[in-house]
Amino acid sequence: MAIELALIGIGTGNPDHLTRAAETAMRAANLILLPRKGAAKSDLIDLRRAICADVLTDTTRVVEFDLPSREAQPDYLDAVDRWHDAIAAIWAREIATHLPDGGRLALLVWGDPSLYDSTIRIARRLDARIRLSFIPGITSLQALTAAHGVPLNALAAPVLVTTGRRLRDGGWPSGVDTLAVMLDGHCAFADLPPLGVHIWWGAYLGMPHQAIDAGPLADVAARIVATRAALRAEHGWIMDTYLLRRGEDAR
């Protein structure tokens, strides 16, 4: 049984983010698996369905599956590890069911499979004989900086990409003045000393209901927290990211 698995980046919510390489890989697949994340996050699978309807021919089969929920437990890394095991087991089941004689499988990854997405880690849990390939896509950081019209870094200066959890637990890392923060469900920026810090924030980047805000952290932090809460209540889910910069190049 020869199985090829392509992880295809599809951008951050705008079908126009799809690259030609992504379209080619989708059409070459015998099977595409689409994850369902529950009614509250139906936007995510609806976009994937729309992309498939627009790109695919009748030769590619599309199958949907229910994505398991991550356990709520104090040990975050252990919970994520168990969650990834459960997802890999579902993928293996779907492969055995729908590609028993081998073939080409594809998964459509929100953003890019290489940046703050665990699809690659999950895929490596599968049978080692499955051949993996990766098609890059537009990332949330690209969409964020384009939406605000700002460069990712200050002139000749580094950028640290981190998570909201690490920012909340460890504070601003030393030696760097620009932070790109992802996976922040608790608005860690609101607990930072705001003096001299500028923030560029965005949610649902690339989607019709994209929302952005920016300004000195002291002036806009509370507003962003309130906006984020309202948007999550309205849509049932939220994907957001932000850029923080301090010092003379904070704008």
Automatic annotation (TrEMBL):
<keyword id="KW-0949">S-adenosyl-L-methionine</keyword>
<dbReference type="InterPro" id="IPR014777">
    <property type="entry name" value="4pyrrole_Mease_sub1"/>
</dbReference>
<dbReference type="GO" id="GO:0009236">
    <property type="term" value="P:cobalamin biosynthetic process"/>
</dbReference>
<dbReference type="InterPro" id="IPR012797">
    <property type="entry name" value="CobF"/>
</dbReference>
<feature type="domain" description="Tetrapyrrole methylase">
    <location>
        <begin position="5"/>
        <end position="220"/>
    </location>
</feature>
<dbReference type="InterPro" id="IPR035996">
    <property type="entry name" value="4pyrrol_Methylase_sf"/>
</dbReference>
<keyword id="KW-0169">Cobalamin biosynthesis</keyword>
<comment type="pathway">
    <text>Cofactor biosynthesis; adenosylcobalamin biosynthesis.</text>
</comment>
<dbReference type="GO" id="GO:0043819">
    <property type="term" value="F:precorrin-6A synthase (deacetylating) activity"/>
</dbReference>
<protein>
    <recommendedName>
        <fullName>Precorrin-6A synthase [deacetylating]</fullName>
        <ecNumber>2.1.1.152</ecNumber>
    </recommendedName>
</protein>
<dbReference type="InterPro" id="IPR000878">
    <property type="entry name" value="4pyrrol_Mease"/>
</dbReference>
<dbReference type="GO" id="GO:0032259">
    <property type="term" value="P:methylation"/>
</dbReference>
<keyword id="KW-0808">Transferase</keyword>
<dbReference type="Pfam" id="PF00590">
    <property type="entry name" value="TP_methylase"/>
</dbReference>
<dbReference type="InterPro" id="IPR014776">
    <property type="entry name" value="4pyrrole_Mease_sub2"/>
</dbReference>
<keyword id="KW-0489">Methyltransferase</keyword>
